[in-house]
Write a structure and sequence with these properties.
alpha+beta; Beta-Lactamase; 4-stranded antiparallel sheet; two-stranded antiparallel sheet; 12 strands; extended
């Protein structure tokens, strides 16, 4: 039975994420310098060809790294593997509880030669940096159009989220019921969700280019950048 192509790509993406967490920059040189750790990671990531543990925070509990050397303690299964909340360890304590949220958005525009916008969309991600003790449950609300319709509020300031993708910590059933993002977060940095908005976006800049050919070996390109409008 052949495996799904999307499944294979997803596993490859998870593997790259794990390697990047360990080596910061995933390049040919870093792979050569850390081949011992890569063997260990692949042994834990896959079991007889099936994905086993793909969360880098869990793997870092028992596959540790210092420089290019691998340090391992006694062979044991980390508690998070058998927990209901596998992405967060128990007993985490901080003197000061803090949560930092970053909303990162980029704009995709398709403009014709006359300057008319043919297609515009916003692609965004919400990233968190969590320093909380214990097993906290967080809730996050957005100005989602579906939520505004459920609560009967005005939709003037609402947006319609598309292609929403959540981290595994999010309770999907809760989101389907009342559009509330409820979750027990992993410790440290992680991406909570990604989304796309199909909306009319005014271009920020206008770029003009003029190309002149003077001979077979000389081409002059002039580019002008100015604010839109």
């Amino acid at each position: 039975m052949s495996a799904s192509a999307v499944f294979i790509l997803d596993v490859k993406g998870k593997t790259v994420e794990v390697f990047s967490e360990y080596f910061k920059e995933l390049e040919e040189e870093s792979i050569r310098d850390n081949f011992v750790i890569i063997y260990e990671l692949l042994d834990e990531l896959m079991d007889f060809g099936f994905p086993q543990t793909t969360d880098s925070k869990i793997l870092q509990e028992y596959i540790t790294q210092q420089g290019n050397k691998l340090e391992t303690g006694k062979s044991r299964v980390p508690p998070t593997v058998t927990n209901a909340v596998s992405w967060r360890s128990e007993g985490i304590k901080y003197k000061k509880n803090e949560v930092f949220i970053d909303v990162i958005e980029s704009v995709n525009l398709l403009v014709n030669a006359n300057g008319s916008v043919l297609l515009s969309e916003i692609v965004g991600t919400i990233k968190l940096k969590v320093f909380l003790s214990g097993m906290p449950e967080l809730r996050l609300g957005l100005n989602d159009r579906v939520l505004f319709e459920l609560t009967g509020r005005s939709k003037n300031k609402s947006v319609e989220l598309e292609d929403v993708k959540f981290h595994q910590c999010v309770r999907l059933s809760r989101f389907d019921n009342d559009r509330t993002i409820s979750f027990i977060p992993p410790d440290g940095d992680f991406e909570l969700m990604s989304y796309r908005l199909s909306t009319q976006v005014k271009p920020l800049i206008w770029i003009e280019s003029v190309i002149e050919k003077f001979s077979h070996s000389r081409v002059e390109i002039m580019v002008k950048v100015r604010p839109w409008g």
